[in-house]
Records
---
Amino acid sequence: MAPVNLNDLLTILPAVFIVVWACVLLLVDAFAGALGKRLTPWLTALGLVVALVLDVSAAGVQASAFNGMLEVDGFSHAINVLVLGAGLLSFFVSYDYLNRQGIAKGEYYILMLFSISGMMLMGAAADLIVVFLAVELLSIPLYILAAFAQPEPKSEEAGLKYFLLGAFAGGFLLYGVALVYGATASTRLSEIVAAVAAGLENPIFLLLGAALILIGLGFKVAAVPFHMWTPDVYEGAPSSVTAFMAVGAKVGGFAALLRVFIVAFPSLGVDLAPVLTGVVAATLIVGNVAAIAQRNIKRLLAYSSISHAGFILMAIVPYADDAVHRDTAAAALFYLLAFALTSFGAWAVVMTLERAEGKGLELSDYAGLFRKYPALALAMLVFMLSFAGVPPTLGFAGKFFLFRAVLEGGYVGLAVLGVLTSLVSAYYYLRVVVIMFMEEGKPQAAGSPLLNLTTGLTALGTVGLFFFSQPLLDWATNALLRLF
Amino acid sequence: MVPVEYYVGLSAILFTIGTLGVLTRRNAIIIFMSIELMLNSANLLFVAFARTFEALSGQIFVFFVMTVAAAEVAVGLALIVAVFRTKDTINIDEVSSLRG
């Protein structure tokens, strides 16, 4: 075994850069005085751009680092691009929002950077211990961010709930890793496969371990029945944090789920398929049905994000099916991209309309939006249509590719359930539209240049990228080439 | 040498106690202690397996887990203190105001 060398660090340069940059910014924020504090957010954005450039310039590089603990390939590059893009969008939506809410502090951005580094490692993790460490690196800063508006009681409560349930999930994940280690004498994904092929003494450990890992990561992506925290945390946390974690934690969680299950546990496909199908069905039904009853836009979007987790999980059900899993995994990556853009846009609109002390978050506060702020209402229309999966939006393309891949795999029941729950979801998304366009009211928007820019760009992206869906899907498919 | 089954059994019991503790107790500190118990039951499993495999890796993992647990304690206790200052209680049923 070679000791850690410079090459390892260079292989995962974007993630290393983000960590180092976050540490530097901690010092800048603490010691560079008033100017430093003003600069921290902008330096964060600069760091994200640099990391994005580093990652894109290394696209196509395939290597493993740290004795095979991390695997840099097209998949990890794709996850890096998604996560760094999400980080930039969160900077855009956070900057003015935090000032307006009076919670603008430098550590917000630094914690965000640390969390992003965890998400990047999730995409590259080729060892279950690294998966565990990356999950914690992703989560611990998020616990603090959820409580960032303290002493606001709701935010503190969100932080505490997220922390307790997140740590609980971490316990399941770790115990699962320990059991897999016990079954195969290794936590390296490739060695687990080799050990399974050579025959196991205790195959039950492997199955139990994989199930516990599924529970642990299921919490992170908010799949039913591990979703209880989602509405409370999404409602209580500052909206900019919610926007960040809705996208970031999902991308990270699904990245780890895809790689771990496809690479390490293909032998368990038959045993796990019914469990996974059950989880998908429960997630789709609970997420979409519970969203109908919501009156608060943040809770509505929380349940909507649960239902989208169900759609993406659909792609993981046939993970052991060699003929299908590449298409479904590519569709899942595409869906994540569509969800990320749409979700940030919708949250940007929510933040524009949110006022001090949590006012302006009821659906009734959106009445009359079209008359007073037509551009904002049209943007929200785009996001709602994309969430519901109506063309011409990225959300439609995402659902289309996903259902097509699932159907080609012969999972007709899943696809039917997906279409039916999409119809249910159209009801509550379109209700928002009806309230905005048809009802009378006096909404108050506090737009700011950066927020408006985000809303505009994501709306344009959601519609514009729809016309480039096929190239984007090809990009996702190419990203997955090395994984299998 | 104590057979590995005993360790696995003990660790499973500890994990179950931890899980039940999280689900049934209402005091945030005790819930948190139960979570630590879950992490440590996994540690026990790692060490026991590492000994049977005569491999060091499992023992090294325990150090990682302890570090993570320490970081979690730092953040978790800070959150609990912050909640206690605002609400004068850490009973999670009384803290809970978000519903729907």
Note: Residues 268-479 of chain A form one domain.
---
Amino acid sequence: MAQKQRTATAVEKKLIGVADVVIHAAERRKDPTLTIPVRSLSNVTFNDRKGLIEMGKRKQARSFFNVGMAKKFMQTVLVADALCELQRANLTTSLREIYYRTKHTIKNSHENTIDTQDESDPLIEDLEVTLTALREELHVRAENAGSIVGPLVLVDDGDRVDCARLGKGGYSVPSIVEPEYLQIRQCTADFLLLVEKGTQWNRLSEDKFWRRYNCVLLTGNGQPPRGVRRLARRLHEEKKLPVYVLVDNDPWGYYIYSVIKQGSINLAFESQRMAIPKAKFVGLSSADPEAYELPRNVGIKLNDKDVARAKELLGYTWFQKKSWQAEIKRMLASGLKYELDALANKDFQYLTKKYLPRKLKEQDWLD
Amino acid sequence: MGAYAREPLAAASRNVSPPPPVPAVTPAPPPKPTMTAVEMGARQREISVSEFFTKNRHLLGFDNPRKALLTCVKEAVDNALDACEEAGILPDVVVKLEPVANGGPPPPASQATRFRITVADNGPGIVRQQIPPIFAKLLYGSKFHRLRMSRGQQGIGISAAGMYGQLTTGKPVRIISRTNARAPAHYFEVQIDTKKNEPLILEKKQIDWESPRGTQVTMEVEGRYQKGRASVDEYVEQTIIANPHVKMTYVTPEGETKEFRRTYEQLPASPREIKPHPYGIELGMLLKMLQDTKSHWLSGFLSGDFSRVSPRLAEDICKAASLSPRARPRDVHGQAAENLYKGIQATKIMAPPTNCLSPIGEKAILAGLYQQIKGEFYTAVTRPPAVYRGNPFVIEAGLAYGKGPEPAPESQAKKEISLAEGEAAENDHELARVIRYANRVPLLYQQSACVSYKSVLDTTWRNYGVAQSRGAVPSGPMVIFVHMASVWVPFTSESKEAIAEYDEIRKEITLALRECGRRLGAFLRRRERAHSEFRRRNIFELYIEEVVASCNRLKGGKLATAKLKDQLQKMAMKRTGGEKTDELLGQNGSGPEGLPHSIIVTPEGVEGEVPAPVADAATAGAPNGVAKTNGGPPPSGAGDGAKGARRSGRKGTTKARAKARPTARKRR
């Protein structure tokens, strides 16, 4: 570790570059300005050939001598400083800790550098895009919010983790799963099933679905965090596992699937390393209630927000395939959404014993 | 008829039920009358006003003990002020509240259920014969039959208060009055005979009294003393705001003596009495006037008993009503009277004279607000007179904004505490306070029913730089003052708590509030501009420190920090206007020129129409201009309050006094 402190890492050099921007501008009597790529829907494009969302070229300037931006500029430099400190000490930390680390009251005033975490989080994302460094490379981690189980052996910090021998609970996926932290020693599975909900993952794990169908079960408890997405991508890429996604039948479920498949708008620059363009959508499809004879009364009425979100999805370029337009329009036409949990209406083990086997047998999925 | 009507009905019923009923069912005998008209007539009898109000005391503001205490004080003080002003005497009023024991030692003020209220003035006094009816006969007074602006209107107030005391404690009203130093002082104890609405004199005698002139009334009533909204304390404070010419000594039930000094040395112009305006009366009233008039001719009646009706206009009205100008007024009734009424409405008549009104005036409102409310900006507007239903009225509005310049050491201490998450913008949730007046009397209840309050809600304060959520009063440290002066204020009830909504009144209030708002907006904008340049420079300076420190750490502590800081500071200076801004900031908070009738308070001093005696009170550390002498014996008489001589002098006081003492009352 002491070695690292002397020879600055690539990321560390990038962070020091922020200070250089200020120093060089000051020497030339110019306004210190950071150029930050814009992170919004207007600045992403869908690459049809690669099947990825890519970041556009639009950038925004953040200058110090501009009343509206001065504070943000100062905060950005502060966050860069804190991130550099992490690099030098070779520690990882959370977004919240970054917030606390950078917060202090400015001398001779009662103003805080940063008031809430909502201010510091986007700054970290700004630095990620600006410096083209991944959050993992910046040593910032999220919570361990995912679980994995299946015929798979991992090595984490030198410990061998056999995911087939971890009971029902499985292995908790860390937020940083880059090869230098986590190695995939062995994987004999035939495919990977990514489940939106922890409850349904538990159902499958308890029923040992993975053993019967020789697959890896992965969940991200809702919108999958980066660690889960990155691990799925690595298994897909390194072990050639096909990826299937099982989500609720509502606009949010569709979007979770699209994030796994094409990447998210906010982190479009990371699609390259995260997205799995070949991922398939197994369910719950809006056609399933009819095909599997789910009673109408287990549906939930779409609220205004759901409808608005669904209409937004219809407009996204990566949802333009005919099958997808039909899928979403069918949901809007029925006016109902269905949770995965609703399958329990037929039988507690309906998902394990009937629904998934039939889906896999019929190869009934959307691309 | 009845029999015929029953026939087909019976037939119908027969059709429905096949077997015909054997005999026609005899109808039930009609209920036997239990009482005859004669018996009922014997029960009818007249209800006296006093009996009526005994049962309906809530109509007069005696609904609950807390409000009753306030109403009693209010009625007594209103009478005292009206009397002083009519006699042309600058009022000195003493209000004293004492908790009364119900056997045993007197309870603490917050626990007490009985209070002795004493209100003394230095007014003209009351002649001996008039004392009993004034204080113990409902609807007896000098103000009802005149169209003249005064606080009281009906002659109910003080006798109703006495009646309430009599009802709840059984104690009579005690009055001492003296008309001049050489005359004796008369002492009366009176009660009201509620059946007859006549005074009962329990005791009368001549006594020695220390005041050379004036009236003192003492009542014992059931009540509750609780501070806060709509309390006696608030009433006293608000009375002083609208009546800065009054000197008031208020002894709270807790024994604290609050002195409110006179800040405006001029009595309000004495309002004239006027005759009713033809547009303001209704048909019934017209009929009564036709009967009561002393004129022999209709034209004489019209021109003599109404204001703004010239003999020629009277002829026009008669012509419009197709009545003879020579007709005897007493003979005009029925259709003819109705025609006359319509004729009046159809004729164009000049608006009523407005010298019957005595607005407070911008200077006096400013003085009152400045004395009682801590703020940074004050303004006042008096509208020109207007008319509703033939009654002239004047609307006045005022505004006090801000929290007042903070004393320097306190703000220093505040800066050292750093703020935690979510603590930042906490102090801006305060809502504005609306204080309402009618003929200089504060209105403390039924705020939301009052046209003044509704007009405040309807004004778009956001246009003037003040935040306001939908359907709410504006937010911010602000007091909004609204006063309506009229010969007849249209209250929504006898307890005089809210002003009724007439379009004309609403329009005037809105116009006055808008003017206040515009001036506030100008003040806020100006202050904002002066501060924004300063803040720009300031934030750069603050942030430069942070940026330089961060850069230094990023560079591993090997940076020439002083050099970088210097470079950045030079650039900051250049970009925020450099020396020019310095100059601009030097002349901080440009004066109230262009903002008429306003006061601006800055930490450096006060600018504008500052009332004289207040100037020295402001520095003495009693921001409300209230001297507090805890537990001290209250001044016994009205004439000799402690003179406000304990104030230390202030730099520039004499100058301010010379400037502010008005030579003549503001004329509109």
Note: Residues 1-5 of chain A have pLDDT under 50 and may be disordered.
